């Protein structure tokens, strides 16, 4: 029987070109996190199922999780997201750690879903979280990490925007202004969350079922039409949303000082599902007409420590998947070409019995931190040139047995120079050009 | 109910100090691979169980693998090792790819085992493989990647050695010299593999069961006493081991030219179990008296493409785990201190309502690729100093509202200088000192 060469459904074989692109994205993520002093962490790829059950309820467990029972009768799951793990880890150290705690990670995650564009069963996710006393500055900082990252790829306000809203605001609006009880508020959240996907008629029909008073129904419709930050501000003043719940003006001036104004857009339909968020909620949106979708989402939360019987520690964070990010970069032409490696010297020979000289010189050059692909067995010039180019090398070196010399050809300029094998210093200077 | 804060058995929570150490090791691995032109790849964390069954037989499947049945009735497993995945991937592309193919990866792997020093259920493993026509130069290159990596940590021949042997040689010795049939050869392999672990008496007893002729028994005992490369060479000449099977002299001169001589030690008991190796086999051994153990192992193989019905493509490779490597570096004092991060500026203020100035300046500095942790809310000097030190920052900046200036204190030298907030250029120069 022959075994299949294909990867498991919904997973990727990352051949070198793809892996180089992924490593490039990972490097930019790490740089963006380090620019703000975030520290790296990672956790196990397996967690006990109870952890996810406690955080997300039974639904996620049943539908989306890879879970099984281990030989010790533990019910375990492959991590489908990083938040429960980071909460578990922070719960171990938050009492001693200086606040705020700034952490990031780039774990591989598995979710059981039907593979489609931008969604695979396995992906890597950049997770950034800031834990500490509630503060608009923490919210601003998390958004800055995102813009810093996107800017590092060359993306700007013409490529993406940050749609935001605030759960404190919606909660206040629903309960104090519209006078809804908890259960009706919950249902209205659900409706808003689907607002962009439902046809207008369907939406109106479902809204009607809430039997809002005329005045409230008008207010709610007014809310749904809010487009700019100015309109949002005016509306929040109109309903007397208190500064204590969330300092909207403070948030906006801080966003201004932090260079975020050109990205921030208020969106009344952003609520981030029925998730655990309790403050700011946001989604980074692609502005490309063919790719109008959320690239990443996040927000502020307060209750993650509860399941560990630990005192509350608020946080703000987001997750950005590598598949989504790559689609974004590709659709805007922002992903560099990774079809070739990035090697300095391809070293070979056309002569018999020159193998040891090749090994020797390659070794000496590598010890000066210059990469060398060596090809000790003799090859024809044409073949050497072909292999050197395909490998993405900048120089081709050919050792000439008789003269004890090496000819070094710059493959970009076609310049070539000849050096004594013993003259390592000059060879290094040439290769550093 | 309160949820456990502990990680799943045999897995690690990598808090920032540990993750920084791991990232440092990963970076050195990547650099070592790139120094030789190896290209990165990765595969899925799940594979179909048939892949492992085809390569390793039923034993590994039953004992060591995390496997389960997915919702599509596929029998899948979390990857316990990378070789089957890389073989599957190479089988897809080897016909078109220029040879040799040089690939490396650093995947996370899960094995079901009893956690103990140097062995956990989850670890990361540096996998390096070179696929192409059989050649002693490929074997030498793989060993060079290892020494290059270990040298990059400051390890030298006083810290580690490379014990080697060759399966071609053992096969020839067993079948042609000792005249053993396949089944007896197999049993003798098993005995040798356990030679170091068995007490002398036990070993002799089991050896006696082979009923070797006196002459052969003496030869076998002579084989077991071979200590140096010179002795190995003399012995291989004595039994007329043919150069066509493996060019021992060529291998040794190439190793010399490549700077490997000081690491290479012949060891008659190295056979790498009953694994798939067909040529060179080796183990990198820690020389530390408290940690005399194999750090990594590998060798040359020929048959990995068979299970995919593809023509043979020989290879050489090795795997090095992050837990083992870390133990090695720590026991030799070669692991740098990672207790703190590596941030440049910690920026805060002692004054009220200076938050926007903090955000503004931090943003301007970060855009020049300098990392800044900002702390917009006012704090006492002592607190600022404390937080700056704990965060591993090199400078503490304090914005003075009244004067519109920032005082920058070098935390290593205690020098301090005052700059106009608008004078970004001078601030950057100071921070780059």
Structural write-up:
The structure is a homodimer of 433-residue chains. By secondary structure, chain A is α+β, with helices and mostly antiparallel strands. Chain A has two domains: 16-42 and 79-331, BirA Bifunctional Protein, domain 2, CATH 3.30.930; 343-431, 3-Layer(aba) Sandwich (Rossmann fold). Helices cover 39% and strands 22% of the residues of chain A. Chain A has helices at 16-35, 49-56, 58-64, 83-93, 136-152, 167-177, 182-193, 200-208, 214-225, 229-238, 248-257, 322-331, 355-366, 381-390, 424-431, and strands at 39-40, 46-48, 67-69, 75-78, 101-105, 108-110, 122-131, 160-166, 264-266, 277-286, 294-301, 315-321, 343-349, 372-374, 393-400, 405-410, 416-420. In chain A, strands 1, 5, 6, 7, 8, 9, 10, 11 and 12 form a nine-stranded mixed sheet that branches. A five-stranded mixed sheet of chain A has the order 14-13-15-16-17, with helices on both faces. Chain A has a three-stranded antiparallel sheet with strand order 2-4-3. In chain A, a hairpin with a 7-residue loop joins strand 10 and strand 11 (294-301). The longest helix of chain A is centred in the N-terminal third of the chain and has 20 residues, at 16-35. Chain A is elongated and about 95 Å long. At the A-B interface, helix 1, strand 1, strand 2, helix 2 and helix 4 of A face helix 1, strand 1, strand 2, helix 2 and helix 4 of B.
């Amino acid at each position: 029987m022959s075994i299949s060469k294909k990867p498991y459904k919904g997973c990727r074989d990352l051949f070198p070109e793809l892996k180089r692109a992924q490593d490039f994205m990972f490097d930019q993520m790490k740089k963006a996190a380090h620019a703000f002093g975030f520290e790296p962490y990672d956790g196990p790829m397996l967690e006990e199922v109870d952890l996810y059950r406690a955080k997300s309820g039974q639904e996620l467990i049943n539908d989306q999780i890879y879970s099984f029972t281990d030989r010790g009768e533990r019910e375990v799951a492959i991590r489908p997201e990083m938040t429960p793990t980071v909460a578990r880890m922070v719960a171990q150290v938050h009492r001693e750690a200086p606040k705020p705690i700034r952490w990031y990670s780039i774990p591989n995650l598995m979710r059981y879903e039907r593979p489609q564009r931008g969604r695979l069963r396995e992906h890597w996710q950049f997770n950034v979280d800031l834990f500490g006393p509630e503060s608009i500055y923490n919210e601003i900082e998390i958004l800055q990490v995102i813009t810093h990252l996107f800017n590092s790829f060359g993306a700007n306000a013409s490529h993406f925007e940050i749609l935001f809203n605030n759960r404190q605001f919606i909660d206040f609006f629903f309960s104090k202004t519209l006078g809804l009880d908890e259960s009706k508020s919950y249902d209205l959240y659900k409706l808003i969350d689907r607002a962009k996907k439902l046809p207008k008629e369907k939406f109106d029909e479902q809204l009607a079922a809430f039997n809002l008073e005329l005045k409230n129904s008008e207010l709610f419709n007014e809310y749904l039409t809010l487009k700019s930050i100015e309109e949002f501000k005016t509306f929040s003043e109109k309903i007397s949303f208190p500064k204590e719940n969330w300092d909207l003006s403070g948030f906006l001036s801080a966003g201004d000082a932090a260079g975020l104004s050109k990205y921030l857009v208020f969106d009344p339909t952003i609520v981030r599902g029925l998730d655990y968020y309790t403050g700011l909620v946001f989604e980074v949106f692609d502005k490309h007409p063919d790719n109008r979708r959320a690239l990443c989402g996040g927000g502020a939360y307060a209750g993650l420590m509860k399941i560990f019987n630990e005192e509350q520690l608020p946080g703000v964070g987001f997750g950005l998947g590598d598949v989504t990010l790559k689609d974004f970069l590709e659709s805007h032409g922002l992903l560099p070409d990774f079809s070739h490696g990035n090697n300095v010297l391809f070293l070979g020979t056309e002569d018999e019995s020159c193998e040891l000289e090749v090994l020797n010189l390659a070794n000496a050059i590598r010890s000066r931190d210059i990469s060398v692909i060596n090809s000790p067995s003799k090859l024809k010039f044409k073949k050497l040139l072909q292999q050197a180019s395909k490998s993405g090398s900048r120089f081709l070196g050919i050792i000439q047995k008789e003269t004890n010399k090496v000819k070094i050809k710059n493959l970009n300029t076609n310049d070539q120079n000849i050096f004594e094998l013993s003259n390592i210093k000059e060879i290094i200077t040439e290769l550093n050009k």
